[in-house]
Amino acid sequence: MSLDYGLAETLLMLDSAPIAVADARGWKDWVAQPTLPISTVDCGVALDPNLELLSTLKPDVILTTEYLAMVEDRLTVVAPVRRLSIFSEGGTPYPKAVEAALALGELIGDRDRAQRYVAESETYFDVCRERARPFSEKPILLLSFLDPRHVRVYGAPGMYDDVLKRIGLRNAWTEETNYWGFSTIGIEALAKIGSAFAVADHLPQDIQAVLDQSPLWNDLPSVSGRKIPVLPTVLMFGAIPSARRFAGLLLDALEGAAA
């Protein structure tokens, strides 16, 4: 079973669905694709899993990450714990996601399947790189709205930034971020960014309504009075499946805006 969505989605792509996932009820709101089987048990929140329930499920192993290290001692009374971290200090997420996929392949006894999936993903990104070629001149500004005046802006190191590099696009945000790959800023800080293609992965309608009336927002060079595209649900802190999904959704948005 997995306490992390990214590791769980990787298992699904390796045809080895976890018996339980932390906060399985929230999967459709945070991950969406791949679909979580209805048989998957929700074992509670990741930082406070239901140990009694886990004991009845008798998992072979419990998957955690560095972020969940504080609960690992409690979990060892239920089953062996395996930590596979994609978001951690040092390096960038995508290579760690590849390492995690291969490690999961070993864990389920099918490293060949994991190697094929990694290779298929490289081919997928090669195709995306060709699709992205017409959009390579203008940098991409990736935002997630917290309220009408504050956003998360995605940069390096981060999974979104890794994907941009892999498909030949530039990130408009070049300042430092945390190891999750984002900084929280006021929208006025976006004024220093010149011409860019702005896109959001989260922009509620009530916030959009306020932005529509905001001179500060509409005067930004990356906005210029237009409504920016909003991507369908994609896990910003995911693994290879979410990286692939993000690449496809971003290119759909770029192509849609150019049509």
TrEMBL record:
Annotated Fe/B12 periplasmic-binding domain residues: 1-259
Gene Ontology, cellular component aspect: outer membrane-bounded periplasmic space
SUPFAM superfamilies referenced in this protein's UniProt entry, alphabetically: Helical backbone' metal receptor
UniProt keyword annotations, A-Z: Ion transport, Iron, Iron transport, Signal, Transport
Protein's UniProt keywords contain Signal: yes
Location within or outside the cell: Cell envelope
Domain of life, per lineage: Bacteria
InterPro entries, A to Z: ABC_transptr_periplasmic_BD (IPR002491), Bact_iron-sidero_bind (IPR051313)
Gene Ontology biological-process annotations: iron coordination entity transport
Pfam families: Peripla_BP_2
Species in which this protein is naturally found: Tianweitania populi
Keyword Transit peptide: no
Protein name listed in UniProt: ABC transporter substrate-binding protein
UniProt cross-references to Gene3D superfamilies, sorted A to Z: Nitrogenase molybdenum iron protein domain
Family listed: Belongs to the bacterial solute-binding protein 8 family.
